[in-house]
Amino acid sequence: MKSIPTIEVHNNLWKGFVLRIDEIELFRVAMPMKEPWRTAFSEEVAIDSIFVRMRSEGQDGWGETAPYRLPQFSPEWAPGAFALLRDAFAPALIGETIDSGAALTARLRQFKGNQFAKAGLDNAWWDLQAKLCNQPLWKVIGGKGPDVRVGADIAVMEDLDQLVRAVEHAAEAGFLRIKLKFRRGWGVEMVARVREACPDAVLHVDCNSGFTLNDMAMFKELDRFNLAMIEQPLAYDDLIDHARLQQELQTPICLDESITSLDRARKAIGIGACGWINLKPSRVGGLTEAIAIHDYCAEKNIPCWVGGMLESAVGQGPALALSTLANIKYPCDIFPSARLYEQDVSEPDIILSGKSQIIAPSTPGHGFSPNMQRLQKCTLEHALVRRK
């Protein structure tokens, strides 16, 4: 029997319906992109992702997690995450009663790491809960309002002239900030050219763990370009060297790949390793942990913003809800569907509601679900886990 929920947030460990997880369905997909996405670690022509359908009380919740096809962004990768979900994580939840994000996290705590795999389940649970309560997810988690500021991201391009045109177009379109992918051979000269062309633009660079402390002179040179931040300059699992680098720079460091849990965020802030934290629900194990990190950062006066993994709208839905929280202080990486895909696997499309703005859906849940025909067309593996 359904319990009667109370819509309120208490330490963000919100409780509503007491859910018994009846069924979990998994789809590993490869979603073709409009054009290659080049970063410091790879060039992607499709996004390898896992869709999770969680069923309880006759209702479905959808989550998505996209660790990429190879372990280059993090140690996780899509085929491995799919196998873990199918063989261990999903079976551990089937038949279990889960009444909060914290309870789901506790149930999966027996398994070490693998935050991307866990995130697929956590994000689906939140969508399911919000739907059963007939509330948009951003309201359930205590968002301050549906309006979300977003920025423009520009990957590595063929040449600097093409890049400058793209940056100028983003600035003319009214984006409040522009992020530039940064890697060896596409570094200081690139930033100098962009800053010369757009002297007033809010810019930052994303290094995707591509450098070491041996590059200290280069990072000090970046100080002269008035960047908003330097995102994840050093190793994906490092905190200590980031703290040393931050001591040498005027530009704030933003940590992304290094922050995989609340505990990692606590340690990073404690040693002065960053001035900003990028929150990605899938990177930290789902929306539950992302909210906990957000709240801790707010207590410690460390501002946050929300990133993404180039997911479909289903994957961006929880990130969009997260972006409505009070300590999100910088335009987020929420992409209109048409930015990455000729046709998104999920619907409805994410669209700009104004200059540099997207409105979180008012429909129950995070607001998005896959188009099953499109999903099946790009599915590489499928599994259904249910009660025997």
Provide key terms for this protein.
single chain, 388 residues, alpha/beta, Enolase-like, domain 1, TIM Barrel, 7-stranded parallel beta sheet, 33% helix, globular, disordered N terminus
Please state the oligomeric state of the protein chains shown. Answer: single chain
Distance from N terminus to C terminus (CA atoms, Å) equals 21 Å
How many DSSP helices? Answer: 13
Number of strands: 17
As a percent range, the share of helical residues equals 25-40%
Overall radius of gyration: 20 Å
Spatial ordering of strands, largest sheet? 7-8-9-10-11-12-13
As a percent range, the share of strand residues is 15-25%
N-to-C SSE string, H for helix and E for strand: EEEEHEHHHEEHEHEHEHEHEHEHHEEEHE
Q: What's the overall geometry?
A: globular
Quick summary of this structure?
This protein is α/β, with parallel strands linked by helices.
Lay out the secondary structure.
Elements: E1 15-20, E2 23-38, E3 43-56, E4 59-65, H1 78-93, E5 97-100, H2 101-108, H3 115-132, H4 137-140, E6 147-149, E7 152-154, H5 160-172, E8 178-181, H6 188-197, E9 203-206, H7 216-222, E10 230-231, H8 240-248, E11 253-255, H9 262-270, E12 276-279, H10 287-299, E13 304-306, H11 313-322, H12 337-340, E14 346-347, E15 357-359, E16 369-370, H13 372-377, E17 379-386
Parallel strand pairs: 7-8, 8-9, 9-10, 10-11, 11-12, 12-13
Antiparallel strand pairs: 1-5, 2-3, 2-17, 3-4, 6-15, 14-16
Helix pairs in contact: 1-3, 2-3, 5-6, 9-10
